[in-house]
Amino acid sequence: MKFEGTSSYIATDDLMVAVNACITLERPLLVKGEPGTGKTVLAHEVAAALGKPMIEWHIKSTTKAQQGLYEYDAVTRLRDSQLGDERVKDIRNYIEKGKLWQAFTQDSPVLLIDEIDKADIEFPNDLLQELDRMEFFVYETGETIRATNRPVVIITSNNEKELPDAFLRRCFFHYIKFPEKDTMEEIIQVHYPDIKRELVGEAMNVFYEIREVPGLKKKPSTSELLDWLKLLMAEDVSPETLRERDPNKLIPPLHGALLKNEQDVHLFERLAFLARRERT
Amino acid sequence: MFINFFYELKQAKVPVTLREYLTLMEAMQKHVAMFSVDEFYYLARSALVKDERNLDKFDRVFATHFKGLDFLSDVESKEIPEEWLRSIGERFLTDEEKELIESLGGFEKLMERLKKQLEEQKKKHQGGNKAIGTGGTSPFGADGYNPEGVRMGQKQGRHGKAVKVWDKREYKNLDDSVELGTRNIKVALRRLRRFAREGAADQLDLGGTIRETARNGYLDIQMRPERRNKIKVLIFFDIGGSMDAHIKTCEELFSAARTEFKHMEYFYFHNCLYEHLWKDNRRRQTEKMPTWDVLHKFGSDYKVIFVGDATMSPYEITYPGGSVEHWNEEAGEVWYQRVQDVYESVVWLNPVAKKHWEYTPSIQLVEQLFSNRMYPLTLGGLDDAMRELNR
């Protein structure tokens, strides 16, 4: 069982080693990186490559660790008891399985815990034991749920909060850095195989130029580049248009896909204007 | 196996623990990394480093510890062409060293020994090894202090790959003191939260209602007050003069703190805290507020943050009348002391980079007055400061 990237996902060597270590040792893998570098997609691709089912648990600021295990629906039970429903006698009818429970009982699926940093600071601590031993106790029924086949756990974080050390100790860690030009070309090839080579080359130049503009509030990332290329293809923009340095057209066509911020567009216009003026 | 490497990491302040080291060993045993240095590097990195801020430190330790190793794994699989050995030797040896070599039997002999040793090693260890590697008195390897030493696999890469991955140190710019943005500041400030339920009970407590209903047998509604952050913060900003250079960082801090804390009060001062403070810089001469009033008005449960570069003449702090603007009856340090007498949690955030502090006497003086509770205005510093306030 080895992960080596898929036909739709380019994995760098270091990422492959990290994923394989996490699969072999059955430990969670914590993935960090700039937004839009494919952290969430990674879990999907690992599941696809290994041919395993996929369970996603998206974390919000209100998510509690307990919700991942199970929830006891007391209100329904109360109502049922007033109506004299037969179901009320068995407490198991009112226990709703959470994502972790589902993952533990299926045949070693890929479990994605997305954006763990969104939750409360204590959230990762509450999951320590569950992720480490892959088991938990249900107080209402007195049974212990234990993973028969341990799931592959992939956790993503956007660095909004620091994660507790005890939690980090139990994970493998990988930081997805922004891809270099070669890797980026491969990624584009995978997504748009019939895109004109020239267009890609020119588009990449423009893209990396924009990324290097100092002071941008939000640098465009891989997912934005891919969107932009899609637009360029749909509009049938020719490579020449991208290459041309007409002082009247300071910013690249369809820039809305790359620059998501009004100030950034202004800043870019100003800088481009200055640069062109110096050149002539 | 790599115990020394582990301790070197610890020494370089990479937070590694035994548990992580054991994980690495387990992964090695299960052949996650198969006989390739690059793979081992990736594996070790992913098992031992848990924060991108430490990646650079890790790379540096790895580079020094495993110097020359990468080169070797390529060499031993092939016949070693003599020309090539010679060219390496010549490139890295100075003239004097070459003379020395001549005196010890000449270049040919040295190279022969190297060849022999490489072959010997191949027999002894299979796969990767680092017998020709770091330190030691062997004439071969990167750190050897034998003048005959041949520097190997340090700058020169293999197969056109210019430098080894860990020598690139790609993670350099992720080291701690990154530029602050409001979002980052908010995250750092969020450390300073203490939730509590206080005030009027105006929220339905669902869990409590169910519990009480079940116990009593009739519907018994429970209410409770809303959960709020009860931290109160008082911020004093140094404004004008040398602080103009840091105005952007301070603005960011200010706006982040504004949204993060419900109970936040701020006041301005110039250079050093004296008997007056103000809230509006345009009307600072007319709408002054006595510092005593501030100290009396805000209770001792407020957390106090000073923001300033503390860069001034030491007289402005230590002597009455030291102020550059007016005649102050009491010295600045008296006022700083009074603030600390009233409030238990006080920190000073300094936008000047920490490495420059020792060159400015007034910074050291203020740091002393605040019993070392001065932190640089970076993410790392802010984090530490919030932790101090939270104690």
Description:
The complex is a heterodimer of chains A (280) and B (391). Chain A folds into 2 domains: 13-65 and 97-176, Rossmann fold; 181-279. In chain A, 45% of the residues lie in helices and 14% in strands. Chain A contains 13 helices and 9 strands. In chain A, strands 2-5-8-1-9 form a 5-stranded parallel sheet, sandwiched between helices. In chain A, a hairpin with a 4-residue loop joins β6 (135-138) and β7. Chain A is elongated. Chain B is α/β, with parallel strands linked by helices. Chain B has 4 domains: 3-67 and 168-174; 71-153, no CATH class; 197-230, no CATH class; 231-390, 3-Layer(aba) Sandwich (Rossmann fold), CATH 3.40.50. Chain B is built from 17 helices and 9 strands. In chain B, the strands form 3 sheets. A 5-stranded parallel sheet of chain B has the order 4-3-7-8-9, covered by helices on one side. A two-stranded antiparallel sheet of chain B has the order 1-2. In chain B, β8, α16 and β9 (374-376) form a beta-alpha-beta unit. The two termini of chain B are 41 Å apart. The relative contact order of chain B is 0.08. Chain A binds chain B through residues 13-14, 17-18, 20-21, 24-25, 27, 29-30, 32, 74-75, 78, 160-162, 165, 168-175, 177, and chain B through 15, 17, 19-20, 23, 26-27, 30, 32-33, 38-39, 42-43, 45-47, 49-52, 55, 165, 170-171, 174, 187, 190, 206, 210, 213-214, 383.
